[in-house]
Write a structure and sequence with these properties.
Structural class: alpha/beta
CATH topology: TIM Barrel
CATH architecture: Alpha-Beta Barrel
Shape: globular
CATH class: Alpha Beta
CATH superfamily: Aldolase class I
Strand content: 15-25%
Radius of gyration: 17 Å
Amino acid sequence: MKLYGFQKTTLLDYPEHVAATLFTGGCNFCCPFCQNGLLVLDPASQPEIPEEEIFAFLKKRKGILEGVCVTGGEPTLQPDLADFLRRLKALGYSVKLDTNGYRPDVLRKLLEEGLLDYVAMDIKASWQNYSAACGIKEIDTDRLRESITLLKESGIPYEFRTTVVKGIHSIAEFEEIGKMLRGCRAYYLQGFRESGDMIGEGLEAFSRKEMEEMAALAGNYIDNVRIRGVD
């Protein structure tokens, strides 16, 4: 696994778990609001963390840490992801995967093998706006629809989430997103925060009031809609 970041303890990344977070490099999207720009555009410029260093730490922290969150970049691009997750499971850790959902073939295999305990899938925008939001000209929405269905039918805890950005999203499109995700377990609207490692420029956050309007629209189709990361 190509790993370029390691947060040794987090109470935020994996719901109801004390966890560590691992960051993979590379992505098949180029979202302008991405806050891990170097991991997406030039991961080789970052120091690579040896797997054995990570596993040595995790062995020592057994009984204190409960889970491991694998994020990115886009983890499903890593050819040895399944092998890596097997090693995490063998140590007794619960595994959370963060993914953009664009490789449903990989997601399906990981679910079938029981290597995932929680999945967070990014929903970048409504279907009509997806290409602009994920920064690529042509987007195969069938792949994303397949991943959405896989998670709904998986039997494990999961969430869908959208980082909400002024200049990318409109309030009105969250009606369509609600329809896209109709009946899902949980949907989170995440507040945008600018970082020093962003891909795009000139983006702004919506107000809490505006996000509450979005949540209300999505809530016409989803029972559990929440706002995250907004004061």
